[in-house]
Design brief:
310 residues, 9 helices, 6-stranded parallel sheet, single chain, TIM Barrel, alpha/beta, binds beta-D-glucopyranose
């Protein structure tokens, strides 16, 4: 996403350990995470979960598609355990000290050219799992800012990890002829490079629920029809970036969209995974108004809807 990408400091290990212990205890005592595959039983869902810390909430839905896009924050481990996500990423090659709760997969990313040229980072990502996300919004100057040629030159280094590879995630134009992504994908095909799935971002400027869901679905379908590869939607929310300034949908609109969009995404067979932007609170000067979990680990109304989605 366009705003700054300054990295926050490492979260305190002690806090994480305490949070992990609390999360595990809560899981085993309360049993309020309902394991249900992506089309599983919805009978336990309680709408209107309360967002204050410690309050009783409805059950989270654990699904294989639902994930978390986050920057580290103190209660992140317990928030991940609470949320029903099956995976997360942090725009980084390492979990930055985050302890993953049991059953929640960490997915590393090679964010840009610096990481791709760093042998240590490339060696480190292999230890983090079997799947690797590619460059973040290389078509944006304020993000990983590379030409398709530069990205193609670096791609063999990502391939050499042997991991399952997500494409670079373009900010725009995933289905457009002549776009950054089109040039990259054509170049990759010509060179016989491996791209196992496509990573996409989508921000909706029309805040009307049904139209927004339809707009997102059309985008995903168009990209799928063009490339026939599974899709990971790794950032999305209702934010209008037209006219330079970010215009964010109201909380009610975001909540309605979280509910309807997750239902749509769960029903699209070619969408393997999705993650709302974003799970964690905004970094200083970062995008506000779409947060799922607050800095104290409590959920926002959007977070409540996301927990129950799936
Ligand atoms: C940036 C990341 C950043 C994230 C969340 C992304 O668009 O590329 O570096 O951590 O936004 O703020």
């Amino acid at each position: 996403m366009p705003p700054s990408h300054r990295r926050p400091g490492r979260p305190k290990v002690l806090i994480l350990v305490v949070c992990a212990v609390i999360a595990v205890a809560a899981l085993s005592i309360g049993g309020w995470i309902v394991a249900s595959g992506s089309d599983g039983d919805k009978s336990g869902s309680e709408p209107g979960a309360n967002s204050s810390p410690g309050a009783t909430k409805g059950p989270a839905r654990l699904t294989t598609k639902k994930g978390a896009a986050l920057n580290p924050f103190a209660p992140v481990t317990s928030a991940l355990a609470d949320s029903g996500v099956s995976w997360y990423y942090d725009w980084d090659g390492s979990p930055q000290g985050i302890k993953s709760p049991p059953g929640v997969q960490y997915v590393p990313m090679i964010w840009g050219d610096k990481a791709a040229n760093d042998g240590k980072t490339l060696a480190a990502v292999k230890k983090e799992g079997d799947t690797l996300l590619g460059f973040n919004e290389p078509d944006f100057e304020s993000q990983s800012n590379m030409s398709p040629d530069e990205a193609l030159k670096l791609w063999p280094k990502l391939e050499a990890t042997g991991m399952r590879l997500g494409s670079p995630a373009p900010a725009n134009g995933g289905a457009e002829d002549g776009s950054w992504f089109d040039e990259f994908m054509k170049g990759a095909e010509e060179r016989g490079y491996r791209i196992d799935f496509i990573a996409l971002h989508w921000y909706g400027g029309n805040f009307e629920t049904e139209e927004a869901v339809e707009g997102l679905k059309e985008y995903l379908q168009a990209v799928y029809d063009k490339y026939h590869k599974p899709i990971w939607l790794t950032e999305y929310a209702l934010i209008n970036f037209a006219n330079g300034g970010a215009d964010v949908a109201s909380e009610d609109q975001q909540v309605a969209f979280v509910k309807a969009s997750t239902q749509m995404l769960d029903g699209l067979s070619f969408v393997e995974r999705y993650s709302w932007f974003k799970f964690s609170p905004p970094k200083e000067g970062g995008q506000a108004g779409t947060t799922l979990y607050n800095a104290d680990g409590s959920t926002t109304p959007m977070g409540d809807a996301y927990r129950e989605a799936g």
